[in-house]
Amino acid sequence: MVMFLSGCLNSSSILFTGESKNWSANYVVTNLNGENHDYTLTLTYKGDNPSEVGKVKYKFSVSSGGGSGETELSGHKEITHKSISNGAVPQKDETINVTVEWKGIKEELQLSLMGNDS
Questions:
Q1: SS3 (DSSP) at 53
Q2: What pLDDT sits at residue 76?
Q3: Residues 6+ apart with CB under 8 A from 32
Q4: Given 2.60.40, 2.60.120, 3.30.70, 1.25.40, which CATH number is that of 3-113?
Q5: CB 44 within 8 A of CB 80
Q6: Backbone angles phi, psi at 29, to 5 degrees
Q7: pTM of the full predicted structure?
Q8: Are 67 and 41 in contact (CB under 8 A)?
């Protein structure tokens, strides 16, 4: 099951968010008015025992690029992937696809824009 949420940050940042059974995710683009934009993907494990999750692989795709990584979830619930670019910013109607894999389990998340007042 994939859920979509809506809301907003401010005019100098945009937030895409979504969740699956075991994970929630935020993709924030900040410094929209600057030459370089900051991109942060945060994955949060929703379970009670993050130390039992072990190695986590993730990947995400955005029209302006994407990324992937692999890390051990040992004692903390969040994984953060940061980057900086002067490239395109995701479109307001865009869906960001995120895949998370651990212990033979694979979940897909679809992140959508949290409202926009600008």
A1: coil
A2: 83
A3: 11, 12, 13, 14, 89
A4: 2.60.40
A5: no
A6: -110, 120
A7: 0.82
A8: yes
